[in-house]
Design goal:
about 220 residues, alpha/beta, Rossmann fold, seven-stranded mixed β-sheet, two-stranded antiparallel ribbon, 7 helices, 9 strands
């Protein structure tokens, strides 16, 4: 029933979301903020980013190397830098990357930005934490903006993501990903299984119409 309501509401919400974000909007979390640019995924009218931020804020990130993969607004990167991490924010959207770097500087925080399709431009880099808030609606994206929402009809985003994660030392790197119960967890998990990975739930928040879980991606063996 909850998934049915989510599917019913989503088209109307999506139109409102794009209308509301036709100009930059400020988003605050505790002592930091970010500017959400048009055509960049926004945490303002969504739940997942706030849930992720609440979890990240409990971690000891002092001097840790953190990657926010697909940073969008970059608020998780900025919060991580505030907590003392050495942060890299990556996104396929150059506007998103430039904005998070600039906004971090405004708060005397250092975030290194890099334009990258997943790990394509990050080969050889190592991190203590990788934070991922992925697109999960099964539709092919037709522009940069839609990449923040749609993972491809065949969940191509996750196939590529898990293929690249599988070569990392996931016993040393904590790869953490948030997913809503609105997504097709079975399909996503199957993509992980093909790469000999699995998703271990480490945090869960239940709300009226949505449940968000944070999973750690680990080796299946």
């Amino acid at each position: 029933m909850k998934k049915f309501i989510q599917k019913l509401i989503h088209p109307f919400y999506k139109r409102y979301h794009f209308w509301y974000h036709r100009k930059p909007r400020k988003y605050n979390f505790e002592k930091v903020y970010t500017w959400v640019q048009p055509n960049v995924f926004s945490p303002i009218n969504t739940v997942s980013t706030k849930v992720f931020l609440d979890y990240v804020s409990t971690l000891n990130l002092t001097n840790k190397k953190v990657l926010e993969l697909g940073c969008g607004s970059g608020i998780i990167s900025i919060q991580s830098a505030f907590q003392g991490a050495h942060v890299t924010a990556s996104d396929i959207n150059e506007t998103a990357v430039k904005s998070v770097v600039k906004t971090a500087q405004e708060q005397d925080l250092l975030v290194t930005g890099i334009v990258s399709d997943l790990f394509n431009e990050l080969k050889g880099a190592s991190f203590d934490y990788i934070f991922i808030n992925p697109p999960y609606y099964p539709k092919n994206p037709h522009n940069l903006e839609e990449n923040a929402w749609f993972c491809g009809e065949n969940f191509d985003f996750f196939a590529k993501l898990f293929s690249q994660l599988s070569v990392l030392e996931l016993d040393k790197t904590q790869a953490l990903m948030i997913l809503s119960n609105a997504c097709d967890l079975e399909q996503i998990s199957s993509k992980a299984t093909k790469e000999q990975l699995k998703l271990n739930e480490v945090y869960k928040v239940k709300l009226t119409f949505e449940t968000n879980s944070i999973y750690r991606v680990v080796k299946a063996s």
